[in-house]
Amino acid sequence: MPFMLRRLYRFMTRHIDGILLCGIVLLMFTGLLVLLSASNGSYVRVSGQLVNMLVALGVMWLFANIPPHYLMRMALPLFVLGCGLLIGVALFGDVVNGARRWLHVGVTRIQPSELMKIALPLMLAWYFNRNEASLKLRNYAIAALILAFPAALIVRQPDLGTALLIIASGSYVIFLAGLSWRVIATLFVAGLASLPFLWSVLHDYQRQRIMTLLDPTGDPLGTGYHTIQSTIAVGSGGILGKGWMNGTQTHLDFIPERTTDFIFAVYAEEFGLLGNAVLLVLYLFLIGRAMVITANAPTLFARLLAGAITLTFFTYAFVNIGMVSGILPVVGVPLPLISYGGTSLVSICLGFGILMSINTHKKLVQT
Amino acid sequence: MSELSINPGIEIRDSERELDRFRRRLAILGFFVLTLFSLLLLRFFYLQVIQHGHYSTLAEANRISILPIAPHRGIIVDRNGVMLAHNYSAYTLEITPSKVQNLDDTIDALATIVEITPRDRRRFRKLLEESKRFESLPIRTRLSDEEIARFAVHRYRFPGVDAKARLFRQYPQGEMFSHVVGHIGRINQREVEQLEKEDRLANYRGSDYIGKTGLEQSYEKFLHGTTGVEEVEVDSGGRAVRTLSRTPPVSGNNLVLNLDAKLQEVAYNAFGDRRGALVAIDPATGGILAFVSKPGFDPNLFVDGIDPQSWSELNGSPDKPLLNRASAGTYPPGSTFKPFMALAALFYGKRTPQQAISDPGYYMFGGHRFRDDKVDGHGMVDMYKSIVVSCDTYYYVLANDLGIDPIARFMALFGFGSRTGIDIAGEVTGVLPSTEWKMRRFSKPEQKKWYAGETISVGIGQGYNNYTPLQLASATATLANDGVMFRPHIVNYIEDIRTRDKTPIEPKPLRDLGLNPEHIKVIKDAMVGVNKEGTSARVFAGAPYTSAGKTGTSQVIAIKQGEKYVESRVAEQHRDHALFIAYAPADKPTIALAVIAENSGFGARAAAPVARQVLDYHLLGKLPQATEGKR
């Protein structure tokens, strides 16, 4: 019997990275605590989220067991499927809240931009890996096109937030693949130079939105309201916080979407600067471990994919926290591993599953 | 791969270098991560240490809440200040469904305290289906002081139920103005999406209502006003205890119309119990003086969501009270088309005024006998007589001589078959027949072809001709104004309630048709003749002013009556429509109008008397005897 148990244990843990898992579980646990407070002590959402977490961990285990070269084979088909679905959305998608993001597939509906979040870095990593022997400027240009096509479709939906995140994840791959500094500098200067032009072609209402980002008090009834209230929550938390379940902003309904995108406001109000520092350290711990895995990945494909997953995870955390504390625009990005919601949890854990796979399969090959 | 086998050493060194570069880049990104996280820490330090006092004050001592304050909607008055749409304050009883355990029980319990009719319940159900669970929805409106007091006593029993002071929209003139003033109603999901798309949603935070039809809809942007903001301090229970700052709302602008409410009333009542429409226009400006579609409906029913029963009564009525006959109903113009046909003949040089034909009482074309009203014919008929006695034969021949496309080109100048651009929505184009129109309209090849015989009946305003009363009135006004056409508009000016600034809706000349004044004079003289010695002479007998007119009778084919006929009405609904166009005074017109009385027979009998009453009131201030003192 102990033999059977040991085999089962080994089967379960063979491809799991203990350090990553430890960080993930700590963050998830924090998330459950905050969620309990954010939903005023009701266990309905908490238990729902617990189920989501178990599912996400299952997905993580599954992907940790898939060797990277299987993923490599999936890259092109997944990307083509993702683009096809995005085109489908543009043509036949459902309009929800003024944006066309959802596509009916049989009985359910899906948001293909979610799929793109993983399909695009996968595709780019595959593409660079394929041309590894002779990477020329032309290859980077093609990579930029691969990035631009789905990004443009998502901008059109319109879903500027998701588009920017996807552009970021693709840019990380291109940067890591070794795009020369001279090109980067040129692009940077060109981007700065075209800003006045971009501003002039924007619609009045788009300019208005940008102005609201810079000065949220200008639109206290619209999106500014979120920022004003969440900033108050963070600021009033002080150094030690108001204590778990004691945030007034949270419990008096001032923080909108406080279980999902704005959950960090709840956390910051109740746990203060100290809690925030701990949270950042937890994230850094995960990111650091992921970077180590990235640096030691055996192939260019694995390195680029691992790098993209790591940096995208960081970007989500940074953009969300930045938005809640009022230094970044309000875009619909959940706080990774903490916000309520299954989709985000699953896609984050899927990424970590791939990281674990990259790390552990390399070792198997070596031994 | 082949290089690898030839010289593995280089390849490995290469990939070592690649790996080094990759790790350098990764390190740069690691630095990037640390930098941005430090930025966050700095921000936290700023918010939670340096500004902590400030935010604590906001959050702890002053738990502020930002509340929208809905602006007062602008009022709508006629040219003399008669109120057509205004607001009054009253209490409503509202339920927030998400805060209530059992809706039915709550409503039953409420019903023991204040009166709740089955109609209130039905309306509430309908609202519930259309809205989100956390919106508060009215179960009862316009509560009396006594009811409010009773509810206040029992309030503790009803969590999620509140009495709120609200502004209500009221339309004191009721059904008479239902189609022109329109009404507001509760904002639905589609409108929310539309507002969001136009980035106007924030301004509707405190608003429950939006213009749905008529002027209320087309001038929504002016009427609504700007929502104010109030920052209030709330206690731990969330109740407002003190106002911190207040940006007052800016009331919506008022609309002052060209419409004369009294004239509208005279016209509306002049129809008696007939269905029909009347549009009266000031020819010199295009200002709409009266805009009647009868029967109307009570717009007040729609403000808080109409209950399903009243809705199906209105929607299912064979009289179609919801149809705006004046601009969305189309009718063949019948003989009112003849003055324009005669003008076309002069325009194209196909007739002189003196040129006469002999009318045997019919016109033979392609083996078909087109009959005149008068069996024996009118004898020798020139242009003047053709209009005064309304001779059909003259226009059969003329139509054939002109041909359908020249007719269509000329009539298009007067706006027949196209929208006038009036300032309310829902206007239809009608049908100005031409060979091109028929090509587009029909799909089968044999139907696409225009047959010469079809031109003949177009000449007397029948056939495919189909126009709105508004188009007919606008064309008449254009003729009265010697060929200068104005865009018809209902609103005279928009008034800013604070500054009293008036923004006039400028009279907008659409085009000068550039017609020969001599030609116009011929037609105008003949139309004066109609009221003096012609088909409507008896109706206008004894009028102390000179007027011009033209009667018309049109066969019923246009307006789609519901598929389900009420048996006893069938005969009536097949009767002809009576039409009349007129303007006065003949030498310097201040009013031009078109009247249609559905299924009422000859124009002279049913429609001309309506016009007479309207002209009498407009020019003489004289109220019609029969209806005086009725309202």
Task: Give an overview in words.
The complex is a heterodimer of chains A (367) and B (631). Chain A is mainly alpha-helical and 367 residues long. In chain A, 73% of the residues lie in helices and 4% in strands. The longest helix of chain A has 33 residues, at 263-295. In chain A, 45% of the residues are buried. In chain B, strands 2, 3, 4, 5, 10, 18 and 19 form a 7-stranded mixed sheet that branches. Chain B has a 5-stranded antiparallel sheet with strand order 12-11-23-22-21, sandwiched between helices. In chain B, strands 1-8-9 form a 3-stranded antiparallel sheet. Among the domains of chain B are: 2-61; 261-620, Beta-lactamase, CATH 3.40.710. Chain B is built from 26 helices and 23 strands. Helix content of chain B is 39%, strand content 20%. The interface between A and B is large, with 55 and 48 residues.
Global morphology of chain B: elongated
Distance between the termini of chain A: 28 Å
CATH class of one domain in chain B: Alpha Beta
Find the structural class of chain B using helix and strand composition: alpha+beta
- CATH homologous superfamily designation of one domain in chain B: DD-peptidase/beta-lactamase superfamily
Q: Strands across the major sheet of chain A, in which order?
A: 1-2-3
Instruction: Name the beta content range of chain A.
Output: under 5%
Largest sheet of chain A: 3 strands, antiparallel
Q: Any low-confidence stretches of chain A, pLDDT <50, length ≥5?
A: none
